[in-house]
Amino acid sequence: MAKTIIDAHNVSKTFNPKTIPVHAVQNVHVHIEEGEFVALVGPSGSGKSTLLNMMGGLDEPTAGTVIIDGVEITTLSENKLIDFRLHNIGFVFQSFNLIPVLTAKENVGFVLQLQNIHKDKREKRVLELLNEVGLEDKINSKPSELSGGQQQRVAVARALASKPKIILADEPTANLDSKSAANLLDIMAKLNKEEKITFLFSTHDQRVIKKARRIITLVDGKIDSDVQQIPS
Ligand code: ADP
Ligand code: MG
């Protein structure tokens, strides 16, 4: 049997609890097994980003627990959480979030530098990663010299740098044209299949939703449905 890699138990998030409370996520349970390829869908404002951020330890739940690969991240100290994130979870965002002054190679290498990986080993790994996302000819380009699709592929390479078991992606194709979106999704599906990386990605994009094997729908901060499908 596959093992549970993400276990969000009764998770809630209320913003501005003391003024005008916003119940962004309410009593949500999500169990995801290793190797799943899951889309998180729902209208704008339904809590997708908030839920992803809590699962990745970027935001603290108001209530409930998040267990990632057996570690209850909601009880970790700030330093331990940063370290856990760095080694276990890759993030991809809608707006790419690359460092503008750094080249593709440096944006990816930066993560390995944080992990104190030796320069020679770092160089080799960065080239492998950029090769994996088809950007071996763009290693010295800065984000401004790359298309949206290419920037997002750098972001995926960066997310992979720490060899995470999980990648959380918040609307990764929202700023991409159809061709780049399809290309990005192929890369994600390949990583899922060949490297057994678990993917949880929020999206509005019907073409992306079709490729998921499981679709979790949020409405008003609650799970409205959770269904398996055969990807097309
Ligand atoms: P989605 O990603 O599905 O569009 P979000 O998780 O971004 O939804 O937002 C869920 C709800 O929480 C929305 O009502 C949003 O306005 C609110 N919200 C999100 N982040 C914050 C914040 N930092 N402070 C206050 N309210 C927030
Ligand atoms: Mg969002």
TrEMBL record:
Domain named ABC transporter is located at 6-230
Per UniProt, the keywords (alphabetical) are: ATP-binding, Nucleotide-binding, Transport
Q: Which PROSITE patterns match?
A: ABC_TRANSPORTER_1, ABC_TRANSPORTER_2
Q: Which domain of life is it from?
A: Bacteria
Q: Does the keyword ATP-binding apply?
A: yes
Q: Name one GO molecular function term.
A: ATP binding
InterPro entries according to UniProt = AAA+_ATPase, ABC_transporter-like_ATP-bd, ABC_transporter-like_CS, ABC_transpr_LolD-like, MacB-like_ATP-bd, P-loop_NTPase
Q: Does the keyword ATP-binding apply?
A: yes
Classification via PANTHER family: ABC TRANSPORTER ABCH.1, IMPORT ATP-BINDING PROTEIN
What is this protein's record name?
Answer: ABC transporter ATP-binding protein
Source organism (scientific name): Dokdonia ponticola
Q: What is the lineage of its organism?
A: Bacteria, Pseudomonadati, Bacteroidota, Flavobacteriia, Flavobacteriales
